[in-house]
Amino acid sequence: MSTRLVILGLLQERTLYGYEIKQIIEEHMGDWTSIAFGSIYFALAKLTEEGFIEKVATEQEGNRPSRSVYQINEAGRTEFQRLLREIWHDTTQRTFDLDIGLFFSRALPQQEIRDSLSQRITELEAALQHLAAHQTEQEAGIPPIAHAIFDHTRVHLQAELRWTRDLLEGFERGAYP
Residue 146: helix, strand or coil by DSSP? Predict the structure, then answer.
């Protein structure tokens, strides 16, 4: 759903072709979305098929492959509003695959678990550093609401880092099998 919502939202602003959508997502949403490049083109095809967007042109520059330009229509604007409202009212409890790993942690050597948790801590610390650097880099060109988005991601990463450190400490002192 998020891919569809993002594409419809971006097309609200102006007509775009697939690669432009990819660039906007990577440059401005990459820290808080996980939209794969291939899913953009699948969603564009599906949204066109469903009548929410229209292909308005096909462009080609030199020897480069042709590209299709899309625009949103009235049905797409209505769908965008529906999806947006759905996101705002979503209170689905999130689950974490790592919790399944914890449940079966007895099946792995304890040193392997401790090493994995140490690696996870390193990766979470790197993610926080990247996020801070990216926010600083984007500072001048982002709307005020983007600060709230960066904060949301940071708070989640910090909580995950704190929890992971506590979990590692518990494994190291033998509190967990």
Answer: helix
For residue 62, the Cα-to-chain-centroid distance in whole angstroms is 34
Region 136-142: what's the mean pLDDT? 77
Phi, psi of 148 (to 5 degrees): -65, -35
For 62, the token pair is 């030199």
Q: Do the Cβ atoms of 28 and 138 come closer than 8 Å?
A: yes
User: Do the Cβ atoms of 22 and 40 come closer than 8 Å?
Assistant: yes
Tell me the CA distances in angstroms from 66 to 17, 53, 60, 148, one per residue in order.
10, 19, 4, 38
pLDDT greater than 90 at residue 134: no
Q: Which helix (H) or strand (E) holds 69?
A: strand 67-72
DSSP-assigned letters across all residues of 155-169: HHHHHHHHHHHHHHH
Residues 6+ apart with CB under 8 A from 28: 138, 142, 146
For the segment 61-77, the average pLDDT, to the nearest whole number, is 91
β-pairing verdict for 16-17 and 53-59: unpaired
